[in-house]
Structures are given as structure tokens and as C-alpha cells.
Automatic annotation (TrEMBL):
It comes from Nocardia terpenica. Keywords: Ribonucleoprotein, Ribosomal protein. This is Large ribosomal subunit protein bL25 L25 domain-containing protein. Pfam families: Ribosomal_L25p. It comes from the Bacteria.
Length: 101
């Protein structure tokens, strides 16, 4: 999506109905990456996105420089990536922390 010369990355994400260790393990087994969305006066929200889509988006410079548009159940939310956790030797993204803007 382009807006006034700013390229925004758009990711379709899902909100799992449950959270916790078992849910995270199932998401990782399904090749999904876990995101946590903070800020905006709302409680933290756990989200899941396809790992391949996230890694393709993360490979671009815009991922770190521009807002990311997250589509959660049809509602668009803009956020910025704050912290990325990677697997120690596979170099795969395990978890991303995002801040609402």
C-alpha cells in the first residue's frame, strides 16, 4: 500500500483464541510466527502470521523504517516492529514485538 510516497508493509494476521505454551508450540509447528502487539491504551494482544510472509517482509528495509499495517479480523492497525527474537542457530524469526501507532 502506498500513501504519500510511504511504502507500508501489509500483513494478514490472525488472533488465536487461546494463548500459552501449548498454543505457541502448535503455531510454530504449523510454521506460524507469534507476534505481540502492545500500546495504544489497550492490553497486549497475541497474534500469529505465516512465517514465510513475515520473513519476506522483514527482508526489506521498510520493515524497520516504516509502519506495518496489520489486518486483524478485517480491521487494519498500524504498528512498528520493536524487537525481533530469532532462533539461536536456524536464524528463523521466533517472535516479534510490535507497538501500535
Amino acid at each position: 500500500m502506498e500513501q504519500e510516497g510511504v511504502v507500508t508493509i501489509r500483513l494478514e494476521v490472525e488472533a488465536p483464541h487461546k494463548t500459552g505454551r501449548k498454543t505457541r508450540r502448535k503455531l510454530h509447528a504449523a510454521d506460524k510466527c507469534v507476534l505481540t502487539l502492545y500500546g495504544g491504551g489497550k492490553p497486549p494482544q497475541t497474534l500469529a502470521v505465516d512465517r514465510a510472509l513475515l520473513e519476506r517482509a522483514e527482508a526489506t528495509a521498510e520493515f524497520y523504517a516504516e509502519p506495518i499495517e496489520l489486518v486483524i479480523e478485517g480491521v487494519a492497525t498500524r504498528a512498528e516492529a520493536r524487537a525481533i527474537q530469532r532462533h539461536p542457530y536456524r536464524a528463523r524469526i521466533v517472535h516479534v514485538d510490535l507497538i501500535r501507532i
